[in-house]
Design brief:
The structure is a homodimer. In chain A, about 35% of the residues are buried. The first copy, chain A, has about 300 residues and is α+β, with helices and mostly antiparallel strands. In chain A, about 30% of the residues lie in helices and about 20% in strands. The first copy, chain A, is built from 11 helices and 11 strands. At the A-B interface, helix 1, strand 5 and helix 7 of A face helix 1, strand 5 and helix 7 of B. Chain B binds a DNA duplex (27 and 27 nucleotides) through helix 10.
DNA sequence: AGAATAGTGTCTTTTAGACAGTATAGG
DNA sequence: CCTATACTGTCTAAAAGACACTATTCT
């Protein structure tokens, strides 16, 4: 009794630590990534999530979501971007805040931990890029990118998140094969077959899946799983992967085109062995991937659908 | 240049403070509350929000959302409940996490501040209750409930949020008229005519209004603005207040009953001067108000509607 | 020609909305 | 009686879903 009270009084003077964790989705892992070795029973398209194996207590050796504490001068969304980049070696095509977790039980005997969760999308466009490392990690090849939990970036002037994303993408240096092989503690798992997760990260994944599967969400972001142009059949496959059930091609076509967000590029597929399909691009999305940044990270499409 | 760098280095060693702020909605302020004295142009039903005037820098004298920092051993939702109770003297009928705000610019020269925003509902059921004060504030009448920002509660054993809510409601002592009159710095404002707000609280209110007005939200919580039983006309008025436009009574009736969440109590209104209306109650909501607590604070209704 | 997928037409069912008309209390 | 609101019926338009049918490319 006296004992626990003393330890409680010590905890009392530790301010809560604030961390960011991210659930990233992709239709398939990047080429160089480690994948869950267990067999997949059905060949249906599933969603993949990158996880990081913890190398220190608590939960040492257990898989966890990419993330880390927020440095004193880094915006929340930038912490999510930086820690995702450390695990995936690429910037995501979409990023949005999900929920904040701060129950006092989640790390009972340690410092109070408040986790702000994000969810992200990696599309074919992003995964096709050559994996890159931030310049600081490249100058410190011994540590690689697995040293995530106590490695704040130097101060930077305020920028818009679009600028930050651009900078991160263009300034990043190429990763050597050695650096990539050092990622023993990063692997991709099927969202349906996740291993045991540290902390309450299983709850976070469940919340992210629920959010992704709400119609107003995925109708606006499904195209981000694909490249800059895509056929309606490809887009339909994404919807089927998210929903987990087949979708009628004819009705899907009408509904997708009725949204007014798809622009016919005039190009078509070739060499498919059958009738070629028209290629579309998403409305007002010519090049730069959009990353939700601030408190009002709702897109105009989402607002309209409410 | 040297100067700002030095102050920046000091900030660097201050961990971010974590605070909670809440946007609470009600169809009308409680009887004893101070109200915005400005005239309301139209007599349409509007939503009301309680605000607290800051008594110290930054933003001294400016209205702000109820809230405060999280004590080391208090769950996020409990901080929201406690600070709401300090301002409104009642527990809300509904409470759900909204969004987390943590941009580094929001309190430029001070300690980094991460704010986790909640939104709440006060229904007729809650507002009809006699206002109460927590026991600690009652023992300290000189400070009243306005001393919110540095006044953590003593440690408590973990409880479910339902238990906590129950305890808070039953243990609270009655507030004297003096204590209530001391609430000079708490007032209710129409959501359409808010004063200038401290920090980025205007963004938080905008986000809360957007969330409340999304159909999947208000269809599940509109009934919480009312008492335990209500007529369809009353429920329709709530929808009209949220939407800001009239709703056809006949079509609203069909849609509301088709949801299957309304149970006919068998009772009817009397003394109305016209045909009496049936009284309904919400499905599986006999007594206890439900307060969203943990990471998965989504109701089953919301999950189904996705 | 045949295979395979792209794309169109059309029918049915469901849902949202407008609005006339009936029912029942109190004055 | 009249008034006011509760409640029902019905028509129309829009949307969602099922599914037959045509179109076009490659082998």
């Amino acid at each position: 009794m006296e004992f626990s009270r003393a330890s409680a009084n010590e905890r009392r003077f530790l301010p809560p630590a604030v961390a960011v964790s991210s659930v990233a989705f992709a239709l398939s892992p990047p080429a160089e990534a480690r994948k869950d070795s267990r067999e997949l029973v059905d060949t249906a398209v599933t969603l993949w999530i990158p996880l990081v194996r913890r190398t220190r207590p608590p939960f040492e050796g257990i898989w966890a979501l990419p993330g880390g504490p927020i440095p004193w001068d880094e915006a929340l969304v930038d912490t999510a971007l930086r820690t995702l980049h450390a695990a995936v070696h690429r910037a995501p095509g979409y990023l949005e805040q999900l929920y904040s977790f701060g129950s006092i039980e989640r790390s009972a005997q340690a410092q109070r931990l408040v986790t702000i969760a994000y969810w992200a999308l990696y599309g074919e466009r992003e995964l096709a890029q050559v994996p890159s490392l931030p310049e600081r990690a490249a100058a410190n090849p011994g540590h690689g990118s697995t040293r995530r939990w106590d490695d704040p970036e130097p101060p930077q002037p305020p920028q818009t998140s679009a600028e930050r994303l651009q900078q991160r993408t263009t300034q990043a240096t190429l990763a050597s094969v050695d650096s990539l092989d050092a990622d023993r503690n990063v692997a991709w798992f099927s969202a349906d077959r996740l291993p045991e997760l540290a902390f309450d990260h299983a709850d976070i994944v469940a919340t992210a899946l629920w959010r992704l599967r709400s119609k107003t969400e995925y109708s606006a972001v499904a195209h981000r799983f694909l490249g800059p142009t895509f056929t309606l059949a490809q887009l339909r496959v994404v919807h089927e992967a998210i929903l987990g059930e087949p979708v009628d091609p004819a009705n899907f076509r009408r509904q997708a085109l009725a949204q007014g967000n798809l622009i016919d590029t005039g190009d078509t597929t070739t060499g498919t062995g059958h009738r070629p399909a028209r290629l579309y691009r998403f409305r007002s999305d010519p090049e730069a991937p959009e990353v939700g940044a601030g408190p009002l990270a709702f897109t105009s499409e989402q607002r309209k659908s409410a």
